Amino acid sequence: MTEKEIVKYQQLATKESGDIVSFTENQVVMIKESIASQLTWPEFSLFIAVAKKRGLDPLLGQIHAVKRGTKVVHQVAIDGYRSVANRNGDYAGSDKPLFIMNGKKPEEAEVTVYKFVQGQRVPFVGVAYWDEYYPGDKQGHMWNKMPKTMLAKCAESQALRKAYPADLSGLYIPEEIENTSGTVIMSKAQEVLEAIQKPTVEFTNDYIEADAEPVTPEDPTQERNPNLAPLCCDKPMMISKYDDKEYGVKPWYCVHCRSKISRS
Fold first, then answer.
1. Which of 76, 109, 180, 184 lies at a CB distance of 3.0 to 4.6 Å from 155, suitable for a disulfide?
2. Going by C-beta distance under 8 Å and a sequence separation of 6 or more, which residues neighbour residue 212?
3. Confidence at residue 145, expressed as pLDDT on a 0 to 100 scale
């Protein structure tokens, strides 16, 4: 293990404000090497941060990070959902699932969970439809073996998210991840990660976008294409799509070293 990796593990093991659970350095190493070895460091750091903030333990199988191509999906086991609800102290149980059957397969499942709100036992209902969640015959072995159980999990997870949005929003159980079209539901945390990694500007043949404002050349006597950007890292800089408090309105931006230059 390199010194750089040791520092990263130590940082991830540090408990920060708002963390519900924390992990020792040895536990973080164990999670990275045995459970989340396929994740890059930014993806793994995000996974640990989500686990700590949501109070879910990867070592107990309560949350998993599954990589599908370039996407990372944070999956929570239904027991993890129930653990979060129970930890709040106001969870008041659930009713048994109700089904509308179509032959031997459930067409619809409904689950009601209860939560005490200002002393009242309030119901939260989740409804799941077979044609929206069944992943198809190729991936549907467990769905064909235990159709009611699988669809009821989806309905219960919906109900628990309604009851505890602050704790469970953006998290999904594995049974919800793929529908018949194979669409992957991406967690809000993953959207944040992509926003951080995605360049804030786009290249257009080494020139700034067509609506770019003129840039004053260093030597006023030389003519210059008003849309040609200054160079940084031997590459033309781009116009940021966002304003910057320090550099003003839509400054020049280098997508390589991320340095900025005011355009005023």
1. 109
2. 226, 227, 229, 239
3. 93
pTM exceeds 0.90: no
Position 51 in a domain: no
Domains of the chain: total: 1
CA dihedral 62, 68, 73, 76 (to 10 degrees): -20
Is residue 240 assigned to a domain?
yes
Give 198-237 pLDDT, tens digit per residue: 443 333 333 333 333 444 444 444 444 444 667 776 667 7
Residue 252: give the domain boundaries.
200-264
Question: Does 44 map to a domain?
Answer: no
Q: What are phi and psi of 102, to 5 degrees?
A: -130, 90
Supply 238's token pair: 């781009």
Phi, psi of 252 (to 5 degrees): -65, 145
Q: Which two tokens stand for residue 52?
A: 């700590």
Does residue 238 lie in a domain region?
yes
